[in-house]
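Reopening this ticket.

The earlier resolution said the output was attached, but the attachment link was broken on my side. Pasting everything inline this time so it's all in one place.
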Amino acid sequence: MMAAAGGEPSSHVPSDDLFQTFISEVKQIEKRDSVLTSKQQIDRLLRPGASYFNLNPFEVLQIDPEATDDELKKRFRALSILVHPDKNQDDPDRAQKAFEAVDKAYKLLLEPEQKKRALDVIHAGKEYVEHMVKEKKKQLKKDGKLLDVEEDDPEVFRQAVYKQTMKLFAELEIKRKEREAKDMHERKRAREEEIEAAEKAKREREWQKNFEETRDGRVDSWRTFQAKGKKTKEKKNRSFLKPPKVKMEQRE
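Inline output:
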């Protein structure tokens, strides 16, 4: 690419054109992958790292994010039939897992709020890559170099957007799991405190009940003790009041 005066390129591909090229290539890949066999689709959905790859429902269903609801429904039907356990009786367990991934992605996209979140992640991935490309070109311009970056290649741009999108989906999932673990821990702690409070209240009720039931016995014991003490005191007092014995004088 020839540079114009001041180091600017004579021509470049606008970011909107890059994204449209990206979308076009995605559609070509979707068309290519749509003819995968049942086994190939199952392998795709259960490949290493699938727990994160499958966080993108559009990736799972291999459908354009801008697809209509009717197109989404048709794609789900076609793919779910392809990986259904009944159609893959030689490998029903893996087929079941693949089918569940497809079903989950479809149901998620049926929810307007969930679909919007997924689209937001995809758009955020694209915007990040565009910003990164802009910063690279800014640095090249500052250095007086040609404003050529590898992301000018539509395929490289597509891969960069894809990777960044997957990264964002993964980060959101990690944060979700962290929140879930924190909430679970807090619920567990609250439950333990609730049980402890209930047991304490039970012990206090039992102590009060036992205190009430044994009150009469304690009162009677105290009265008996007082009565015995009184009798003993009276007996001692009587012994002190006895007249002294008179000694008989001996005769001379």
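Reporter confirms the inline version is readable. Confidence is low (pLDDT under 50) at residues 1-14. The two ends are 163 Å apart (CA to CA).
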